[in-house]
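Narrative progress, year one. The postdoctoral researcher (J.K.) led the effort to move from monomer predictions toward full complexes, under supervision of the PI. The following entry was the first complex the group processed end to end, covering 238 residues in total.
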Amino acid sequence: MSLDALAQTFKALSEPLRLRIVHLLMQRNSLCVCDLMSILDQGQSTISRHLNYLKQAGLVHHWREGTWMHYALVPEALVPLQAGALQQCLQQLPELAADQEALAAYESTPRQCGRTASA
Amino acid sequence: MSLDALAQTFKALSEPLRLRIVHLLMQRNSLCVCDLMSILDQGQSTISRHLNYLKQAGLVHHWREGTWMHYALVPEALVPLQAGALQQCLQQLPELAADQEALAAYESTPRQCGRTASA
DNA sequence: TGTTAGTATCCGTATAAGCAGATATAAAGA
DNA sequence: TCTTTATATCTGCTTATACGGATACTAACA
Protein backbone atom coordinates (compact mmCIF):
# COMPACT_ATOMS: atom_id res chain seq x y z
CA MET A 1 0.00 0.00 0.00
CA SER A 2 1.44 3.34 -1.03
CA LEU A 3 0.74 6.75 0.38
CA ASP A 4 -1.30 7.61 -2.68
CA ALA A 5 -3.27 4.39 -2.41
CA LEU A 6 -4.05 5.11 1.22
CA ALA A 7 -5.17 8.61 0.30
CA GLN A 8 -7.30 7.07 -2.44
CA THR A 9 -8.98 4.77 0.08
CA PHE A 10 -9.99 7.75 2.16
CA LYS A 11 -11.08 9.67 -0.92
CA ALA A 12 -13.36 6.83 -1.85
CA LEU A 13 -15.00 7.19 1.55
CA SER A 14 -15.22 10.97 1.32
CA GLU A 15 -18.51 11.17 -0.56
CA PRO A 16 -21.86 10.82 1.23
CA LEU A 17 -23.45 8.64 -1.42
CA ARG A 18 -20.44 6.33 -1.50
CA LEU A 19 -20.58 6.04 2.28
CA ARG A 20 -24.21 5.01 1.97
CA ILE A 21 -23.25 2.39 -0.61
CA VAL A 22 -20.47 1.04 1.60
CA HIS A 23 -22.87 1.00 4.53
CA LEU A 24 -25.31 -1.15 2.57
CA LEU A 25 -22.61 -3.46 1.30
CA MET A 26 -21.48 -4.00 4.89
CA GLN A 27 -24.84 -5.56 5.56
CA ARG A 28 -25.18 -7.84 2.57
CA ASN A 29 -22.77 -10.19 0.88
CA SER A 30 -23.37 -8.40 -2.39
CA LEU A 31 -25.77 -6.08 -4.14
CA CYS A 32 -26.24 -5.30 -7.81
CA VAL A 33 -26.60 -1.93 -9.48
CA CYS A 34 -30.36 -2.15 -9.72
CA ASP A 35 -30.63 -2.99 -6.02
CA LEU A 36 -28.71 0.14 -5.14
CA MET A 37 -30.67 2.27 -7.58
CA SER A 38 -33.89 1.26 -5.85
CA ILE A 39 -32.67 1.42 -2.27
CA LEU A 40 -30.87 4.71 -2.64
CA ASP A 41 -33.30 6.19 -5.14
CA GLN A 42 -30.55 7.38 -7.45
CA GLY A 43 -30.06 7.32 -11.19
CA GLN A 44 -28.26 4.47 -12.88
CA SER A 45 -25.28 6.44 -14.14
CA THR A 46 -24.76 7.92 -10.69
CA ILE A 47 -24.70 4.52 -8.99
CA SER A 48 -22.54 3.01 -11.67
CA ARG A 49 -20.04 5.84 -11.52
CA HIS A 50 -19.67 5.62 -7.77
CA LEU A 51 -19.29 1.86 -7.88
CA ASN A 52 -16.60 2.27 -10.46
CA TYR A 53 -14.86 4.77 -8.21
CA LEU A 54 -14.99 2.33 -5.29
CA LYS A 55 -13.68 -0.39 -7.55
CA GLN A 56 -10.75 1.75 -8.76
CA ALA A 57 -9.91 2.45 -5.12
CA GLY A 58 -9.95 -1.28 -4.41
CA LEU A 59 -12.81 -1.11 -1.92
CA VAL A 60 -15.16 -3.36 -3.86
CA HIS A 61 -14.89 -6.15 -6.37
CA HIS A 62 -17.54 -7.20 -8.82
CA TRP A 63 -18.64 -10.11 -10.95
CA ARG A 64 -21.30 -10.80 -13.48
CA GLU A 65 -24.25 -13.11 -12.88
CA GLY A 66 -26.30 -13.20 -16.03
CA THR A 67 -27.29 -9.66 -16.81
CA TRP A 68 -26.55 -8.43 -13.32
CA MET A 69 -23.29 -7.10 -12.02
CA HIS A 70 -22.80 -7.85 -8.37
CA TYR A 71 -20.66 -5.70 -6.14
CA ALA A 72 -19.22 -6.65 -2.78
CA LEU A 73 -16.79 -5.13 -0.31
CA VAL A 74 -13.15 -6.14 -0.26
CA PRO A 75 -12.81 -6.53 3.51
CA GLU A 76 -9.04 -6.09 3.61
CA ALA A 77 -9.45 -2.68 2.02
CA LEU A 78 -10.87 -1.32 5.23
CA VAL A 79 -7.90 -2.42 7.35
CA PRO A 80 -6.61 1.15 7.71
CA LEU A 81 -9.83 1.88 9.58
CA GLN A 82 -9.13 -0.56 12.37
CA ALA A 83 -7.88 0.31 15.82
CA GLY A 84 -4.61 2.14 15.67
CA ALA A 85 -4.17 0.87 12.17
CA LEU A 86 -3.95 4.25 10.52
CA GLN A 87 -0.83 5.05 12.44
CA GLN A 88 0.58 1.61 11.72
CA CYS A 89 -0.19 1.97 8.03
CA LEU A 90 1.48 5.35 7.95
CA GLN A 91 4.52 4.05 9.82
CA GLN A 92 4.97 1.31 7.29
CA LEU A 93 4.87 3.54 4.23
CA PRO A 94 8.34 3.82 2.74
CA GLU A 95 7.49 7.31 1.52
CA LEU A 96 7.05 8.43 5.10
CA ALA A 97 10.34 7.10 6.40
CA ALA A 98 11.90 10.22 4.92
CA ASP A 99 9.48 12.35 6.92
CA GLN A 100 10.56 10.56 10.07
CA GLU A 101 14.16 11.33 9.36
CA ALA A 102 13.38 14.93 8.48
CA LEU A 103 11.52 15.30 11.74
CA ALA A 104 14.44 13.91 13.73
CA ALA A 105 16.98 15.99 11.82
CA TYR A 106 14.91 19.11 12.22
CA GLU A 107 14.62 18.66 15.93
CA SER A 108 18.27 17.87 16.39
CA THR A 109 19.15 21.45 15.52
CA PRO A 110 18.15 24.15 17.98
CA ARG A 111 15.04 26.10 16.96
CA GLN A 112 13.45 29.15 18.37
CA CYS A 113 9.79 28.67 17.69
CA GLY A 114 8.67 27.80 21.18
CA ARG A 115 8.87 24.09 20.62
CA THR A 116 9.08 22.13 23.78
CA ALA A 117 10.39 18.63 23.32
CA SER A 118 7.03 16.95 23.20
CA ALA A 119 5.83 13.38 22.99
CA MET B 1 -21.70 13.70 13.62
CA SER B 2 -23.60 13.93 10.35
CA LEU B 3 -23.09 11.98 7.18
CA ASP B 4 -21.54 15.02 5.53
CA ALA B 5 -19.23 15.57 8.49
CA LEU B 6 -18.09 11.96 8.34
CA ALA B 7 -17.45 12.32 4.62
CA GLN B 8 -15.53 15.49 5.36
CA THR B 9 -13.33 13.64 7.86
CA PHE B 10 -12.37 11.15 5.19
CA LYS B 11 -11.88 13.89 2.63
CA ALA B 12 -9.45 15.59 4.96
CA LEU B 13 -7.44 12.36 5.01
CA SER B 14 -7.63 11.89 1.25
CA GLU B 15 -4.65 14.03 0.33
CA PRO B 16 -1.08 12.68 0.57
CA LEU B 17 0.38 15.84 2.04
CA ARG B 18 -2.38 16.07 4.63
CA LEU B 19 -1.74 12.45 5.59
CA ARG B 20 1.91 13.31 6.09
CA ILE B 21 0.92 16.23 8.31
CA VAL B 22 -1.42 14.04 10.36
CA HIS B 23 1.31 11.44 10.62
CA LEU B 24 3.70 13.99 12.10
CA LEU B 25 1.09 15.39 14.44
CA MET B 26 0.47 11.89 15.74
CA GLN B 27 4.04 11.86 16.99
CA ARG B 28 4.23 15.26 18.65
CA ASN B 29 1.89 17.11 20.93
CA SER B 30 1.90 20.01 18.52
CA LEU B 31 3.82 21.53 15.66
CA CYS B 32 3.76 25.01 14.19
CA VAL B 33 3.58 26.04 10.55
CA CYS B 34 7.29 26.71 10.28
CA ASP B 35 8.09 23.27 11.72
CA LEU B 36 5.98 21.61 9.05
CA MET B 37 7.41 23.78 6.29
CA SER B 38 10.90 22.62 7.22
CA ILE B 39 10.11 18.98 7.84
CA LEU B 40 7.96 18.52 4.76
CA ASP B 41 9.91 20.92 2.59
CA GLN B 42 6.80 22.68 1.34
CA GLY B 43 5.85 26.30 0.79
CA GLN B 44 4.15 28.32 3.48
CA SER B 45 0.87 28.85 1.69
CA THR B 46 0.63 25.15 0.95
CA ILE B 47 1.12 24.12 4.58
CA SER B 48 -1.18 26.81 5.85
CA ARG B 49 -3.92 25.92 3.41
CA HIS B 50 -3.83 22.23 4.32
CA LEU B 51 -3.83 23.01 8.03
CA ASN B 52 -6.85 25.20 7.49
CA TYR B 53 -8.54 22.34 5.66
CA LEU B 54 -7.81 19.97 8.54
CA LYS B 55 -9.11 22.57 10.97
CA GLN B 56 -12.35 23.04 9.02
CA ALA B 57 -12.82 19.28 9.07
CA GLY B 58 -12.32 19.29 12.84
CA LEU B 59 -9.20 17.12 12.76
CA VAL B 60 -6.90 19.68 14.34
CA HIS B 61 -7.20 22.63 16.66
CA HIS B 62 -4.76 25.49 16.91
CA TRP B 63 -3.64 28.24 19.25
CA ARG B 64 -1.25 31.10 19.15
CA GLU B 65 1.96 31.27 21.14
CA GLY B 66 3.61 34.55 20.44
CA THR B 67 4.12 34.72 16.69
CA TRP B 68 3.69 31.01 16.23
CA MET B 69 0.50 29.19 15.55
CA HIS B 70 0.56 25.70 17.00
CA TYR B 71 -1.51 22.91 15.55
CA ALA B 72 -2.44 19.66 17.26
CA LEU B 73 -4.67 16.70 16.49
CA VAL B 74 -8.16 16.47 17.93
CA PRO B 75 -8.00 12.82 19.02
CA GLU B 76 -11.76 12.27 19.07
CA ALA B 77 -11.90 13.23 15.40
CA LEU B 78 -10.24 9.95 14.48
CA VAL B 79 -12.80 7.81 16.29
CA PRO B 80 -14.39 6.62 13.02
CA LEU B 81 -11.06 5.00 12.27
CA GLN B 82 -11.15 2.65 15.21
CA ALA B 83 -12.04 -1.02 15.12
CA GLY B 84 -15.49 -1.57 13.75
CA ALA B 85 -16.21 2.07 14.42
CA LEU B 86 -16.97 3.01 10.85
CA GLN B 87 -19.90 0.65 10.80
CA GLN B 88 -21.04 1.87 14.21
CA CYS B 89 -20.76 5.48 13.12
CA LEU B 90 -22.75 4.75 10.01
CA GLN B 91 -25.39 2.86 11.97
CA GLN B 92 -25.87 5.83 14.25
CA LEU B 93 -26.37 8.39 11.53
CA PRO B 94 -30.01 9.43 11.40
CA GLU B 95 -29.68 10.06 7.68
CA LEU B 96 -28.92 6.39 7.17
CA ALA B 97 -31.88 5.05 9.08
CA ALA B 98 -33.91 5.76 5.95
CA ASP B 99 -31.52 3.62 3.94
CA GLN B 100 -32.00 0.79 6.40
CA GLU B 101 -35.73 0.98 5.93
CA ALA B 102 -35.41 1.24 2.17
CA LEU B 103 -33.24 -1.85 2.17
CA ALA B 104 -35.75 -3.79 4.23
CA ALA B 105 -38.69 -2.59 2.17
CA TYR B 106 -36.89 -3.36 -1.06
CA GLU B 107 -36.09 -6.88 0.02
CA SER B 108 -39.60 -7.54 1.28
CA THR B 109 -40.93 -7.43 -2.28
CA PRO B 110 -39.96 -10.23 -4.61
CA ARG B 111 -37.17 -9.33 -7.04
CA GLN B 112 -35.73 -11.10 -9.99
CA CYS B 113 -32.13 -10.01 -10.03
CA GLY B 114 -30.55 -13.16 -8.69
CA ARG B 115 -30.43 -11.91 -5.15
CA THR B 116 -30.10 -14.65 -2.64
CA ALA B 117 -31.09 -13.64 0.86
CA SER B 118 -27.60 -12.95 2.07
CA ALA B 119 -26.09 -11.91 5.36
C1' DT C 1 6.46 53.67 15.26
C1' DG C 2 9.15 51.02 11.85
C1' DT C 3 10.92 46.48 10.77
C1' DT C 4 10.85 41.70 10.69
C1' DA C 5 9.18 36.99 11.23
C1' DG C 6 5.36 33.96 11.19
C1' DT C 7 1.11 33.07 9.34
C1' DA C 8 -3.34 33.65 6.67
C1' DT C 9 -5.58 34.70 2.66
C1' DC C 10 -6.18 36.11 -2.16
C1' DC C 11 -5.27 35.44 -7.08
C1' DG C 12 -5.07 33.00 -11.43
C1' DT C 13 -4.87 28.60 -13.29
C1' DA C 14 -5.33 23.56 -13.78
C1' DT C 15 -7.45 19.26 -12.68
C1' DA C 16 -10.67 16.11 -10.40
C1' DA C 17 -15.02 14.88 -9.88
C1' DG C 18 -20.06 15.78 -9.09
C1' DC C 19 -24.67 15.36 -11.92
C1' DA C 20 -28.22 14.21 -15.58
C1' DG C 21 -29.20 12.80 -19.97
C1' DA C 22 -27.76 10.27 -24.05
C1' DT C 23 -25.57 6.56 -26.08
C1' DA C 24 -23.03 2.02 -26.22
C1' DT C 25 -22.45 -2.73 -24.81
C1' DA C 26 -23.68 -7.48 -23.12
C1' DA C 27 -26.70 -11.18 -21.96
C1' DA C 28 -31.39 -13.27 -22.07
C1' DG C 29 -35.33 -14.54 -24.27
C1' DA C 30 -38.91 -14.42 -28.01
C1' DT D 1 -31.82 -12.11 -35.18
C1' DC D 2 -34.62 -8.57 -32.83
C1' DT D 3 -35.93 -6.73 -28.40
C1' DT D 4 -35.50 -5.94 -23.77
C1' DT D 5 -33.04 -5.41 -19.54
C1' DA D 6 -29.02 -4.32 -16.92
C1' DT D 7 -25.01 -1.89 -16.88
C1' DA D 8 -21.09 1.05 -18.52
C1' DT D 9 -19.45 5.00 -20.52
C1' DC D 10 -19.56 9.53 -22.83
C1' DT D 11 -20.90 14.47 -22.99
C1' DG D 12 -21.56 19.02 -21.35
C1' DC D 13 -21.61 21.63 -17.49
C1' DT D 14 -20.59 23.06 -12.66
C1' DT D 15 -18.13 23.05 -8.36
C1' DA D 16 -14.27 21.91 -5.30
C1' DT D 17 -9.71 22.05 -4.59
C1' DA D 18 -4.65 21.66 -5.74
C1' DC D 19 -0.57 24.82 -6.54
C1' DG D 20 2.70 28.89 -6.34
C1' DG D 21 3.30 33.68 -5.99
C1' DA D 22 1.69 37.97 -4.10
C1' DT D 23 -0.35 40.46 -0.57
C1' DA D 24 -2.29 41.28 4.15
C1' DC D 25 -2.43 40.74 8.97
C1' DT D 26 -0.28 40.13 13.78
C1' DA D 27 3.05 40.06 17.37
C1' DA D 28 7.70 41.00 18.95
C1' DC D 29 11.27 43.99 19.33
C1' DA D 30 14.39 47.87 18.39
